[in-house]
Amino acid sequence: MNSKKISLVLGSGGARGYAHIGVIEELEKSDYEIASISGSSMGALIGALYACGKLQEYKDWVLSLDFIDVAKLLDLSLSKTGFIQGEKVFKVIEEMIGDVMIEDLPITYTAVATDLIRQKEVWIQEGKLLDAIRASIAIPTVFTPKKLGKRFLVDGGVLNPLPIAPTISDNTDMTIAVSLNVITPKKYNIDTKKKSKKKKKGFEKIFFDIEKRVQKLFPDDSENKFDEMGMFEIMGQTIDIMQNAIIECKMAGYTPDMIIGIPNDVCGFYEFDRASEIIEIGKIIARDNLKSLDV
To answer: Is 41 designated active site?
Structure first.
C-alpha cells in the first residue's frame, strides 16, 4: 500500500476527544502519513501531542488515572471566570511537551481558539505549543480563559468545533475530519472492567461535590435535587447542541474528503475517566470508515 499524505481535522467534544487517539493509531496502522493537523479544544490537545511525538506518553498517562488521581488534578478556583484553573493538568502536559514552539514541529499545526472580547475565531499557528493548547481547550465557565497578549481566549469549539478551513491550502492527498458530535442509532458496547466501573463511581462523586460547592455560590430558594440531571450534564448537553448547529453551517462551506463520525452519546462531555473505552471506539469507527476507501 502506498502511503497517502493527509490533513487531519480533530473536532471538539470533551471526553469524546479520547477517540482521536484511536483514530490516529488506525490511520498510522493503515499507512496514512499525517502531514497537517487542525484541532479545536480536545482536538487541539490530541493533535499537539501527536505533532510533538508525545501521544503515546499521554495515552499511557490517562489510562493509568484512577478517580483519586483525577480529584487531585481538579484545582478548583470557583472564581468569576471559571470553576477550574487547570494548572495541575497543564503542569503534567507541560512536563510531557516541554518548551516546544509550533514553528519547530515536524508537521503543520493549527489550534483554533475564540477571542472572547472581539468575538472572533483565532488560528494559532505560531508561538508556544502549550499556550495554544491552553487557549483552545478553555471551556467557558469551566476553565479560566487564557490571556495571550491583549486577547482573552477560550475554547475553539465556541465558534468552530470542526476546523476544516485551516487545512484548505495544504498540499496533501486528502482531508480527513473526525467529528465528535455525530447523531446515530448505532451503539458500541465495549467491555468495561470492574476497575473502570469503580473509577466511574468515584468520578461521579467528584463532580457531585463540585456541583454542591458551586450551588453555594448561586443560592436558590428551591430544593436542589442531585438525583436529576446535574449541572455538568446540562452544560455538556448544551454545548453538544450548539456545536452540532455550528458544524452544519461550517460544513456547507468546507467539506472534507472523509468524515469519521464519533457518536455524541458514547460518553458524557465530562466523563474523562473512560479513556480506554473511548479510544477503542475511535479505533473501531476509524477502521470501518477506512475500509470503504479503495486504497
So the answer is: yes
Catalytic residue among 40, 41, 136, 276: 41
Enumerate residue ranges in the chain where pLDDT < 50. 1, 194-200, 221-227, 295
Rounded Cα–Cα distance for residues 145 and 245 (Å): 24
| pLDDT at residue 183, as a whole number | 81
pLDDT of residue 241: 65
The CA R_g of the chain, rounded to the nearest whole Å, is 18
3-state secondary structure of 202: helix
Q: Which residues contact 240 (CB under 8 A, 6 or more apart)?
A: 13, 181, 264, 269
Q: State yes or no: is 115 an active-site residue.
A: no
Tens-place pLDDT, residues 76-122: 555 555 555 567 788 889 999 999 999 999 999 999 999 989 999 99
Beta-bridge partner residues of 154: 114
Give CA angle at 209 (207, 210), nearest 5°. 60
3-state secondary structure of 5: strand
Give the amino acid at 222: S
The residue from 115, 155, 240, 273 that is catalytic is 155
What is the reported pLDDT for 229?
A: 53
- The set of cell numbers assigned to 87 is 494548572
- CA dist 264 and 186 (Å) reads 11
